[in-house]
Amino acid sequence: MPELRRDPIVGRWVVLAPERGERPSDFPPVQVGTARNTCPFCPGRESMTPPEVYAERPDGMRDDGEGWSVRVVSNKYPALQIEGDLDPKSDGVYRSMRGVGAHEVIIESPDHSANLASLPDDQIAAVARAARERILDLTGDRRFRYIQVFKNFGAEAGATMEHGHTQLIATPTVPRRLDEELGGFALHERANGGCILCSMIEQERASQGRILIESDRFLAFEPFAPRFPYETWIVPTYHEGAYETSSDDDLLAFAQILGRTLRAIHGALDSPPYNFVLHTAPINEPGRPPLFHWHLEIMPKLTKVAGFEWGTGFYINSVPPEDAAGVLRSHLDI
Questions:
Q1: Which stretches make up the Galactose-1-phosphate uridyl transferase N-terminal domain (predicted)?
Q2: Which sequence spans correspond to the domains of the chain?
Q3: pLDDT in the model for residue 26
Q4: Catalytic residue positions?
Q5: Which residue ranges are tagged as binding site?
Q6: What is the topology classification, in CATH, of domain 3-174?
């Protein structure tokens, strides 16, 4: 059983999941051109994954069979496990609890060779809907406090499966990173009133220098203080804290701007490995301040985090965001 342990100095939680270090050879890192023959995410091999928890397929077709366009299954080797109680413990300054949570995989398409950037907008929207529906369902489990949707693309970004997929992990605590963001939102509201991300959108629209794509519902831009070269954020231009409240129309608009952004990154940077993470409001936290603004952060893996960054929390970025925006704009829709 995984275990969560809390760092007593900074309050950061760590997941100890030794089972993930002993995964058998049926889920190995895959090789281009050979994985299709044995890939458990491809149609016709549904029995090779845990039972699906969500899928989009024509009415009348059986669960865990072919015919799906998007499919969600539990991770066969989860970082956190759905069974059990939290059973929190204290030992002096140390705190721990059982590694209870949910870890799921969103299989983005039946096409083994497709990646998210190559999918049509309606298919990306189907992936976005799957994430929304799984967040809504998991919110009903009162043990969970946060749901992280993320993607690892390429081995250097942590992907071990070639077939395109996004992941989702529900945690019983709010991650420290989100706590820091919530604190920043609250501080700005007390000092200036309103939402800090709404203020950023207004300022970015006024300057235009870091904007990649703008629509009536979403903005893709290079943040003012990026940690990594070509780090890109996508934010709704309307104020909304929780991703799971997005309508189908909202998610189609999101899919359109996400697809264009990823294609620009692939074109400008030769299909780099990347991570993206969805930042959305915590769940089952009635005492939390309501102010938040959901957004997606895309981080190409072009540099490595080294000693100075680990020691100080300062990131060294060799590409100013204004320059990055210009390069990516020149590769839009190529």
A1: 3-175
A2: 3-174, 177-329
A3: 40
A4: 165
A5: 39, 42, 112, 163
A6: HIT family, subunit A (3.30.428)
